[in-house]
Structure formats: structure tokens, C-alpha cells
Amino acid sequence: MKAFAALVHTLGTSTGTNEKLDALANYFVTADDRDKVWVIALFSGRRPKRIISSSWLSQWCIDITGLPAWLFEESYHTVGDLAETIALLLPPPVMENQEGHTLAGYLEQLILLEKQTDTIKRQFITSCWRQMQREEIFVFNKLLTGGFRIGVSQKTMVNALAKKINLSASVIAHRISGNWNPATTSFEQLLSEHNTQIDYSKPYPFYLAHQLDKTPEQLGAPEEWQAEWKWDGIRGQIIKRNNELFVWSRGEELMTEKFPEYQVLQALLPDGVVLDGEIIPAAQNMPLPFALLQTRIGRKNVTKKNLEETPIAFFAYDLLEYQYEDCREQPLETRRKHLEQLVQGINHPVLQLSAVIAFNSWPQLTAIREEARQRVAEGLMLKRKSSAYQVGRKVGDWWKWKIDPLTIDAVMIYAQKGHGRRSNLYTDYTFAVKDGDKLVSFTKAYSGLTDKEFAQVDAFVKNNSIEKFGPVRTVKPQLVFEIAFEGIAASNRHKSGVALRFPRISRWRTDKTPDDINTLEDLKKMLELYGK
Amino acid sequence: MLLSFTDKGLYCAAGDFYIDPWRPVNKAVITHAHSDHARWGHKYYLCHHYTKPLLQARLGDNYYESIGWNEPIYINGVKVSLHPAGHIIGSSQIRLEHGGEVWVVSGDYKTEDDGISGAFEVVPCHTFITESTFGLPIYNWKKQAGIYEDIRQWVTHNAEQFNTSVIIGYSLGKAQRILTAVAPLEKPVYVHGAVWNMHQAILSAGIALPQVHRVTPETTKAELKGSIVIAPSSAEGSPWIRRFSPYNVAVCSGWMQVRGNVRRHNADAGFVLSDHADWNGLLGTIQATGAERVYVTHGFQSALSRYLNEKGIWSAEVKTEYGGEEENAESGKAVNTAEE
């Protein structure tokens, strides 16, 4: 565990990708195989099930330290991370256990605890705390609370592995994808080709596009490119193998159960097929706003009502495997031809083709792009017709060409301290528009300012707070910001009656006063135009 | 009330003087030379002997008077004495006594003896005015010796790769502690102009410090290879720092206790080296003064004040203009690393 804590520390403070890569690569050489398997699992989003709630962990820490609960809360809001807060508050170890468990040892203990009572969980966890140094407590708490985000992408982890074992990064990425259990899989099994148990569910690593950072003319001849709408849904793969159907999201989450609509495809799709596409709500072949999908994805069980109100379709745009053959190396043009034959042959409303947009010139396509919002698309996708289906985010052959966001001017009215690298800084803001003499809050936004601007706003908040409600400060309504967002939908969860998609601060309008901001009426007009 | 809280600063009506005022006044008693406490424009400054040359270096010519620790003087019948605060060189708590009432203003203080700033003295009083920069229980410091060892290991590791170690700390106080920490390595130490100026001022106060070299346009790359550079936080991410390439950056500050702060600085390392009392240091001191009333200034004043009240010590928050950001103002970087 000490070695893993040291690794997490190095990864957390390294500023360059190379440093992180080296730290991970070294870990993969020195750590034992069981630990390696768990590190691969953790850094690819395969945490063990959470066995205890944050509020219990907080309570046990309060009991041990004897601090008042409000002071624990205050500390938490300053640190911005529960695992770290507890690590900072707990006293140093009474009797440090030099040996301790290995990383795998702790994790396997935690899995065993899953079915135990809270008393037994408490006994185990607090006794671990008593034997650990601060860095270890932090990492241990992270394992307990989940959300192991420490600045390492799965790609970096895969590249580090590739440095140390004799396999290419893309092969590793594929072998560690899919459905495997770190508790029962050995390092050997995980990475060997002759995996004894064939995992039929295994998806391919997604090929991701970069935002177009030049004019389309610079891409070359228009006839070399295929254009499609860029849909606003969940990127996913549908897999049919061994007569079973699997649905994966881009976050490598198996979502088969969440979309019962797709089950009909189990009978309709031929065996040995993998489709890449977008999971989106749709009615009569037309996509619906993403906000509708959000009402479904958070749920454990999809109700009948959900199914009726938010019918889901799959807009397919690529074919990655056909007749059990990996066809990612074939040019897009060829894959597309097979995809069209396949989808048209099935002819079922749940499986749609993501249409190819016909165009002859870049100016023509630029004009078509303006229709994106009306079509509930975020813009266009440009794909080179000769391109292979690559792994990860690669520059050159696939581009997303989004339309400009919608914007609205608003005044900041609440502020709260941020998390992670914004700990102890007021960086989470709530914004309001005018409604007559009143201000109505309509969105939060966390990003878009530079560190320097955040520091200035933080200072403003500290000097201009009116009231304090727990961690939230109400602030003198004075600072005006331009909020950019991708979409707008009706919502009964917000006072304003709207919910924005991807809101962020696009500019600090130091040239404007609260008198100049937009009104609730303006928001409602936008809802009328784009939110239906 | 021996002291009242005015919009110019802490005011002693009986003696007609201010302590660390933030607007120009006739008579100011100064706890220490950091710019948020020692401001420009007063007609008269009273401070410790060691503080005087620092004020001269920072504020230029003014009417300064200095006294030693535990050498009481009377100002309009109010007995005034200075006592070591352990924060930086010359930093002092100010004890006022009048009509049987004793008040102590802590200024900024640190309870661990850093070997440079003078050992903090507990001064019994009826009313204690304490800072609260690190007034949350998440702030508890390791011993200085251990932190110094960590810094030396880091520097040694960098030097093995022929990298320069750039260590960030504010120029008055922290820079000198960093210098003391790295001196046993016997490597050349280069300093930023702001650190150099403070270094000279401290030498002129008659205090010995290890030798340093000023970074100038003439300093060659060869000289800097594997060396140590001490710079204030305004240097972070500036063009000035690029000349040391290849280098590693460390920030020394109590704020480094929280990982998010280290990440915000984009530093390669953060050393939790503070010139302020930690949570236990604050509580221990407040208890030891035997004060019946505690006013809490700059920092986590509402948390500390509420905690004291719940523990049965009468306490209230006081709004001041301390805790400024001298060395970060221009870079706008981390609000929190100023002259802590």
C-alpha cells in the first residue's frame, strides 16, 4: 500500500505527462502482479463497489477526533475532498503497521466486508486508519469513497504498460477493456492473447475526434470527406456476439440493462457484429433533446413510464466488427457501405443510420451547419473517407465542427468553494437573470475563467459576501458574466424553469453592470426557439 | 476597552496610537515588517530593533523608533512592550497595560522556534487578539527539522539530474528559512532581487545569514546548473524563471498542506513550511495566555471564534485588512500564498 500511496502522490504532483508515465511504468516493474491488476482496474474506472457512505466515514472521523460536526464540515469545504479532509484531521498513527496489507490485500478485504454490518465495517476501517500515515489514509479513503480521479488518463496508464511489456498500446487497450473482475483475473490472464475465457462483451476502444481548429478549406478536397451531424447523446457500442447483446458507453460502462429498447436487436443483428454510434432519445426517426435522456440514465431501474416518455434509438455511424472480423483497418468508405447494408436490412426504428450529409463545397457545408441546432445536433462531424478506425483521440482524420454556443449575460449571486486544484477558492458560482426588479437564479457554472480571474473573483466574494448558508455565500450582485451553453430545455427543478446544457463562463463582462444583463423573458424566448 | 477596532486599524485611545494601521496615522506601533502590517504613510513608527532596517528598506525614510523585546516604554501613560512572536525576524507581539488591564496583540505568530525569528513567548493577558491564518484543524505542521530534511532530499534528487532547484517562498522570512534549510548542502544559492534586498537589510540589522548570490543577466547557465534558486511567488510562471531550465519548482507555504493548492501552483513539490501557528499552536497559545476574551483577526476567524466560544472562552471576530497578498498581487496567482 505504501508503494501505491507513493505512486498516487507522484502522479498527483507531477506536472508533465512523461513524469507520470515514468512513475507508472516504474510501478508496473516493481509492484507485485496482484497489485498491478488492481492499478489497471482502478485507472480504467473499475473500482470495487462502494461499501460505506461518506456520511459514515465523516461520522467516524468526528468520533475519533472529537471535533464538532460543523468544524468538520467547514474543514471539508476548505479542502474540497472528503478523503483528504479525513486524512488531514485524523491523528498520526498510534502504532504504525510497517507491513500493512498490499493494495490488493486491502481491496479484497473491502470486497469481503461488503455484506457485513456497519459495526464490523467501522471496526476494520478505523483500525486501518490508526495504523496508517497520512498519505496512506488518503489513498485508502479514496478507495472507499471512489472517484479515483488523480490526473491520470487510461491512455497514460496503457502507454506506461506498453513501455514495460511487449505489447502495443492499442492491443493492451483492447485486452483490458470489457467485463473482467480484478479480484479473479491474474495479470497474466488479463494481458495474454489466449485468454482462456472468451469475453464476448468486450468493446473496442473508441476513436475520438478533436475540435476543428482551422477552416474546413484547410482539410483539402471536400470529396475526400464524409460529413454527418454531431449528435448530442451518449456515445456507445452495440455488440452482438455468441447470440448475446451488449451495450457499452464511452465511459466503458456496460449499459445493456438501461436500454431495454435495444433488446429486439439481439434477434435482428447477425452474430459477430460491433456497431459504433449514438444513444439518443428519438421519436419518428428524429432526435430529441439530451435533457430527456438525462431523466433516464441516472436511474437504477428504468420504469415503463420512462420508456414511454423517452424512447431511445441508436444512431449508428460505424461498423467495427462484422462476421467476427475486426474491420477497423478498412477505410471508412468500405465500413460505411457495409453498415448501410446491415442497418437497412434490419429496418427497425430502434436502429437508425446516422445520415451522411451530401455536399459539394465547403461553403455549402458551412451553410448547412447553421441548421444544426434546429436538428438537435451540436454541429457537424467530418471524417476522412479513407480513414481507419483508430484508438483514442488522434488528430487528423476525424474532426468535430461544433456550432457556436448560445450565450446570455448574467450576474453572479452565490459562490461556493471549489474542489481539487481550486480548493479554498470561491470558484463555483450561481448566476441570475433579471425578472422585473427581482433576480432569478438559472444556472451554475464552474469553468471558463483563468486562474488570475478566479483569484480576482475569489477576492471579490470574500469582501462582498452578504450572508453565509453553510458553504454557500450570497454575494452582492455586481459582477456580470457571459454564460455560454449548448442547449436549453424546460425544467421544473430550477426556479427559472429552464435547464442549460454544458453551461460555462465564456467571458467576464467587466464592461457591463447588473442593469445590462439579460432577462427571464430572454431565456424563455430561447427555450421557445431551441428547447422544443 | 483598551483597544477599539476602527476603519484605520486597532486604536488605543488612552495612548492615542494605532497598532498596524492600514490607513495613514500619526503614531503607529508595528508588529512586523510584512507589507499588510507595516504600511506606508504614518508620521511615526515604533517597532523592534530588527524590524527597523526592514522598514527602511521597504518604506524608505520615515520617523522610526525601535526598542528591544521586554523593554517597556510608556506612551501617554500606557505601558507598551514588545515580545517575540516567532513569525519572522523582528516580529513582535504588542503588550499594552493601562488601568490594570492587559491586552496583547499577536500580530502574526508561530509557536515553533525556527532559529531565526526569536522564540515565541507566551504573554499572559486579559484580552488576546490573535490571528487565525491557519485556524482550522486540518492545519497541523510537521517539525521544521523533518521538513528541512525533505527539502534537502528534493534538492539533492534534482541536482543528480543536473536540474536547478527553484524554491518559492516570500522574500522576508520564508526565504531566509529556506536558505537555512539548504545551507548544509553546501551548494551555491542564487536569489531573486526581492530576496536579495531583504537579505541585505537583514545583514545590516547585524544578523548573520549564509552566503547568497544575486541572479543577474550576467549569471551564466553553467553556474546555475544543479544550483539552488530562491524566489518569491511573483516569479512563478514568469519569464524570469525560464532561464533556469532545466529546473524543478517547489513552493514552501502552509497552504501546501492541501493537495489542491499544490496542483494549482503547478509546482513539482509543495513543502508545508509555514511562518504561522497551526491549529494546535493557536489553541495552545490562547489557553496559555489565560485570556478571558479573545478577538480573532485575519484568517479563519469565524471558525476559530465559534470554536472558542463553544469551549467556554469568550470570543469575537474582528475584520481587519491584514492577510494581503503582497507578492502575488501582480501575478494574480494563488491568492493564498502571500505573506501568510
TrEMBL record, chain A:
<keyword id="KW-0067">ATP-binding</keyword>
<dbReference type="InterPro" id="IPR012340">
    <property type="entry name" value="NA-bd_OB-fold"/>
</dbReference>
<dbReference type="GO" id="GO:0003677">
    <property type="term" value="F:DNA binding"/>
</dbReference>
<dbReference type="GO" id="GO:0006281">
    <property type="term" value="P:DNA repair"/>
</dbReference>
<keyword id="KW-0436">Ligase</keyword>
<dbReference type="InterPro" id="IPR012308">
    <property type="entry name" value="DNA_ligase_ATP-dep_N"/>
</dbReference>
<dbReference type="GO" id="GO:0046872">
    <property type="term" value="F:metal ion binding"/>
</dbReference>
<keyword id="KW-0233">DNA recombination</keyword>
<protein>
    <recommendedName>
        <fullName>DNA ligase (ATP)</fullName>
        <ecNumber>6.5.1.1</ecNumber>
    </recommendedName>
</protein>
<dbReference type="GO" id="GO:0006310">
    <property type="term" value="P:DNA recombination"/>
</dbReference>
<dbReference type="GO" id="GO:0005524">
    <property type="term" value="F:ATP binding"/>
</dbReference>
<dbReference type="Pfam" id="PF01068">
    <property type="entry name" value="DNA_ligase_A_M"/>
</dbReference>
<dbReference type="GO" id="GO:0051301">
    <property type="term" value="P:cell division"/>
</dbReference>
<keyword id="KW-0479">Metal-binding</keyword>
<keyword id="KW-0460">Magnesium</keyword>
<dbReference type="Pfam" id="PF04675">
    <property type="entry name" value="DNA_ligase_A_N"/>
</dbReference>
<dbReference type="InterPro" id="IPR050191">
    <property type="entry name" value="ATP-dep_DNA_ligase"/>
</dbReference>
<dbReference type="GO" id="GO:0003910">
    <property type="term" value="F:DNA ligase (ATP) activity"/>
</dbReference>
<dbReference type="InterPro" id="IPR016059">
    <property type="entry name" value="DNA_ligase_ATP-dep_CS"/>
</dbReference>
<keyword id="KW-0234">DNA repair</keyword>
<dbReference type="InterPro" id="IPR036599">
    <property type="entry name" value="DNA_ligase_N_sf"/>
</dbReference>
<dbReference type="InterPro" id="IPR012309">
    <property type="entry name" value="DNA_ligase_ATP-dep_C"/>
</dbReference>
UniProtKB/TrEMBL annotation, chain B:
<dbReference type="GO" id="GO:0016874">
    <property type="term" value="F:ligase activity"/>
</dbReference>
<keyword id="KW-0436">Ligase</keyword>
<dbReference type="GO" id="GO:0004521">
    <property type="term" value="F:RNA endonuclease activity"/>
</dbReference>
<dbReference type="InterPro" id="IPR036866">
    <property type="entry name" value="RibonucZ/Hydroxyglut_hydro"/>
</dbReference>
<protein>
    <submittedName>
        <fullName>DNA ligase-associated DEXH box helicase</fullName>
    </submittedName>
</protein>
<dbReference type="InterPro" id="IPR050698">
    <property type="entry name" value="MBL"/>
</dbReference>
<feature type="region of interest" description="Disordered">
    <location>
        <begin position="321"/>
        <end position="340"/>
    </location>
</feature>
<dbReference type="InterPro" id="IPR026360">
    <property type="entry name" value="Xnuc_lig_assoc"/>
</dbReference>
